[in-house]
Task: structure prediction
Amino acid sequence: MTADLGGVAAPLKASGSRSSLGQLAAARRATLAEDEALVTKMEATSLNVSYAGRTVVRDVSFPVISNQVTAIIGPSGSGKSSVLRCFNRMNELIPKAVVSGSVRLDDEDIYASGVQVVEVRRRVGLVFQRPNPFPMSIYENVAYGPRRLGERNRARLDEIVERSIRQAALWEEVSDDLRRKSGLALSGGQQQRLCIARVLATEPEVILMDEPASALDPIATLQIEELMRELIEKYTIVIVTHNMQEAARASDHTVFMSMGTDRAGYLVERGPTRQLFSMPTHKLTEDYITGRFG
Ligand SMILES: Nc1ncnc2c1ncn2[C@@H]1O[C@H](COP(=O)(O)OP(=O)(O)OP(=O)(O)O)[C@@H](O)[C@H]1O
Ligand SMILES: [Mg+2]
Result:
């Protein structure tokens, strides 16, 4: 399926910080062919989310392109996390949360009756804002998911643990301590990569990340960004971030949300990151990415 990336408006007058973010986004993408074939991995259509009867997300639709990083940006309270949670049905764990609309994963609506929620959450993994390792060894943290899915073979578990920790770019730092050291004894950046390894262990297709670097220092943040660029060889990533540099550097496609006068979050504009950061269509987007509001 070919992705519709949305329209682009005439360029606005360049402002300093916006154009440098645009250059950042353009520089990273410069080597990629303009007309590469894009495939839609997931697609949200007319999503609405309410908590206890209060609508916080209204009519949000966008595609998530396969093997790309899609960034969701927008001011606090605009519903970014609520939208992200729709992509693996995590809102169902929140009492009084109601979701309407549809989310497709490949050609299946994940909200259709008969769909196994456990399977959806395996195929679409979620990494939280604060690293949340379990109070157990590094090895057991990563083996936890596969064990719950029924894997009992010791050699296969060893293999999965090593592969996942390697993919999360953590192996060199922890390979000597796998069984001895608790996941909680790692640094914040290492804990976040451990949580990514834990998600990778169940072989997801899509990885959702809600501000995965917001609790990390600049070096660890860059490591997570580099890791995302490596992971998209195999996976599809959706990330929520408040960090405009991070969105410009690490994402391919950006979705900008804001809050309407009714206080419900809505999608203002979306498009290729390079375009959205260098020539946003809406004044609201321009003001947000240049730091004038939000
Ligand atoms: N579990 C919940 N129960 C009730 N209301 C909630 C819940 N989670 C979020 N909300 C409300 O929904 C609205 C959108 O919240 P959400 O967390 O999706 O925004 P966000 O864009 O991720 O914000 P932030 O940038 O601060 O993380 C907010 O008004 C928030 O108070
Ligand atoms: Mg949030």
